[in-house]
Design brief:
The chain is an alpha/beta fold. It has three domains: about 10-190, 2-Layer Sandwich (Nucleotidyltransferase, domain 5); about 205-290, Orthogonal Bundle (DNA polymerase, domain 1); about 310-380, HRDC domain (DNA polymerase, domain 1), CATH 1.10.150.80. It contains 18 helices and six strands. Helix 4 packs parallel to helix 7 (about 165-175), helix 9 (about 215-235) packs across helix 11 (about 245-255) and helix 9 packs across helix 13 (about 270-290). The chain has a six-stranded mixed beta sheet, sandwiched between helices.
């Protein structure tokens, strides 16, 4: 009798329909993704790993031209628990590339954090729970390359092999520790994760380490080099650091070479760079030198909503209270009231327990256990 393969490789529509049927029959499905952010400017999901407990699939969205709509229904179904480890990134990528809505999430990393597990990486959890060692040697693999090696395929499969068993273990421990409801609030929050649109910041050159040590003229050259690097990165679909490293940009800015011969003497400027970008780099240097000091960058707007003085006082007092409450209950801060919940509380200013529990980041359990103290802090700090 031949041995069953550990996974099924899926690169055709017929195989994808089989994945959808297997997911629909399952109560729990482990999911992971692999993307090519280290190898492209326009990041994309290159592999989706799915384990139903009975079967495992490695889905190739590149071969399928991104047409995965048959999987939309099982991903959106609340009857099927989708288990991730560190769901935040995977959920954003799956929504971005395939327009999936992902409901009924269980995140083993969040569960471990709610249980105050100190080492909550997947490899750590697998080693502690199963005694197996997960190798991370393929963490920088170009997942868009085909064919993938046997060791790369095994690596990707192992990322979903243990998740279903881990979810059962953690669900039991969360309930025994009376922190399951708080964990569910965090799982529900992951369903609403949306990608922050990636925008190129033309003033990003000032955040390159070492740029503060440059003269005004050198900084102007750096700015021009930074701009043309991004243009080329987009054109060839490569990460900026693979087109020209930041250290190389700094060296060129300091030297301000006037010829390809002088440019080629700078560390990090290869013959390939000279051949493909040499003229463009020299023109950018000339522009930077002629323009002198670069324009003063506009002040960056702070992320999120700015708090008024009263709200800031409330925020600090709630954080101080949380430390004491966490110790008293013997649970981590995440269980009592995570930072994003504190932020929403001081912005929304709930007036009673019901309104507090209705906040999506708080939930009824936290409101029931800690509501009077939270509302008291809001009232006394107003």
């Amino acid at each position: 009798m031949s041995e069953q393969p550990l996974w099924t490789w899926v690169d055709e529509a017929e195989g994808l329909e089989e994945v959808a049927r297997a997911m629909t029959r399952a109560k729990r499905v482990a999911v992971d993704t692999e993307s090519d952010s280290m190898h492209s400017y326009f990041e994309k999901v290159c592999l989706i790993q799915i384990n139903t407990g009975e079967r495992a699939f490695l889905v190739d969205p590149l071969a399928l031209n991104g047409e995965l709509s048959v999987l939309a229904a099982p991903f959106a179904s609340r009857k099927i628990l989708k288990i991730f480890h560190g769901a935040d990134y995977d959920v954003v990528c799956l929504k971005r590339d395939f327009d999936f809505e992902i409901r009924a999430i269980f995140d083993t990393m969040v569960a471990a954090q709610c249980l105050d597990v100190q080492k909550f990486g997947l490899a750590d959890l697998v080693a502690a729970g199963f005694g197996d060692i997960l190798e991370k040697k393929h963490s920088r693999t170009d997942w868009a390359r085909r064919p993938l090696s046997d060791s790369e395929l095994l690596y990707s499969y192992l990322d979903v092999k243990y998740l279903i068993d881990l979810s059962h273990q953690f669900e039991k421990r969360l309930k025994e520790g009376d922190v399951f409801e708080e964990a569910v609030v965090e799982f529900l929050r992951l369903e609403e994760r949306e990608q922050t649109p990636r925008q190129f910041d033309p003033d990003g050159y000032i955040r390159i380490r070492g740029s503060r040590d440059l003269s005004s003229k050198e900084l102007s050259v750096l700015r021009e080099l930074f701009l043309i690097r991004d243009q080329r990165s987009r054109r060839v679909d490569r990460p900026p650091f693979k087109v020209l490293a930041n250290e190389t940009l700094l060296r060129i800015s300091r030297a301000a070479p006037r010829s390809q011969h002088e440019l080629s003497a700078i560390k990090g400027v290869t013959r390939f760079v000279i051949r493909r970008q040499g003229d463009q780099i020299l023109k950018a240097i000339a522009r930077g030198v002629s323009r002198g000091a670069p324009p003063v960058p506009a002040r960056r707007k702070p992320r999120g909503m700015r708090l008024n003085p009263m709200q800031q006082r409330q925020l600090e007092r709630l954080k101080d209270w949380r430390k004491v409450a966490a110790v008293k209950r013997g649970v981590p801060h995440l269980v009592v009231l995570p930072n994003h919940a504190i932020q929403e509380v001081v912005v929304e200013q709930p007036r009673d327990i019901q309104a507090l529990g209705a906040l999506s980041t708080v939930g009824r359990k936290r409101a029931r256990v800690h509501g009077e103290e939270i509302l008291g802090i809001l009232a006394s700090s107003g």
